[in-house]
Amino acid sequence: xxxxxxxxxxxxxxxxxxxxxxxxxxxxxxxxxxxxxxxxxxxxxxxxxxxxxxxxxxxxxxxxxxxxxxxxxxxxxxxxxxxxxxxxxxxxxxxxxxxxxxxxxxxxxxxxxxxxxxxxxxxxxxxxxxxxxxxxxxxxxxxxxxxxxxxxxxxxxxxxxxxxxxxxxxxxxxxxxxxxxxxxxxxxxx
Length: 190
Hints:
- The protein is mostly helical.
- About 60% of the residues lie in helices and about 0% in strands.
- It has one domain (about 15-190).
- Helix 4 crosses helix 7.
């Protein structure tokens, strides 16, 4: 992710842009994000970074109304959210009882954006983020960018248009909140 460049999300004109115009401009960056998110998946995995990016793109551009974006940054952020949702749906599908899935407690020590992909952790974090987002939308967005998109603090701060120190404070707060929330979850609740 060190190739994240200012010019990728530089100044924009504020007319609405088409997803088909924007995808080629940020495709490589989206593919890197997708690769980071699924690199630790078990052998035999059928989901590839390219497929994840393409599925996110298709979801974003299903209707004519949704194929208009304010900027490259807006499109990139929306694509990261779509990739998060795809991974969450995939995790839920893998954890259904008919597929032998069983919820289990996941220690917060594993809450690291660079760690291997863990479907239980994805589901837990997603569930907690939904309630966290209601009270702390910017901090929840930071967790989403760090955990689900694999961005660094500096990259996430740039995406959120806040200072790196503010992003660092938000990250510490969010991790502490998630740690407490995860400790309060009993194994049956996951």
